[in-house]
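Hi all, a correction to my earlier message: I attached the wrong file for Putative cobalt transport system, periplasmic-binding protein. Here's the right sequence:
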Amino acid sequence: MKSNPCFASVATAAFVVLLACAPLAQAHNVWLEPDADGAYTVQFGGHEGKLENFAAGKLKSVEAYDARGRRIDVAVQPVPGGARATPARKAALLAAHFDNGFFSRVGEGPMVEKPMTENPGATSGVHALKFHKTILEWGPVTREKLGQTLEIIAKTRRSPHAGEPQQFQVLLNGQPWAGVRVSLGEKGEPLETDADGLVTVLPRAGLNQLLAIVRLPVSGDARTTSLSYEYLLGFSAH
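and the right structure:
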């Protein structure tokens, strides 16, 4: 299902900025981890280092690309507690889309995994969508849009080096988005995208995870009152 939130009003823009400043420590994300057979295990969770099992149907897609942006076939198979993805050949970039479903609550009570229509008395709800990229090889594909609803693309051409500035751009529905809260890792310094959706980070040696979250109000959908888009971009720095 594609949601169509209205971005035009000042009230909506203010709501986006307010919720975008929510702590990233509350985020749950999806990402891919390589195994010894050239496949990737789909991981979900990450808050305080905790992983969670998930229904394979929540994983909507895994895509693979070579360094020039050409698509590579990917076989996805359910495994106990999640899913596993195997590209047909060596990939430069992997991407994933994960729909964690609808959650709702009554007043200030606990969130339950049900849409508002199935939770009597519910006063608020959220539809939680997760997006991911793993950059394995730096090249033109890292600077291209894949068309993810929330997306992070690299702007710096060179591959990352520890302690050297690396610029990225956050896009919402393909457009640069200002005021998005971004951090390197769950406990990293919170940064915010500028008017052009740009943010500059200083990678650490080894694996880096760039996190972003955007929340938007929803009207006209009885199941929820908001959308939550969360992003994890994984890359290594030398």
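Sorry for the mix-up. The first strand starts at residue 29 and ends at 34.
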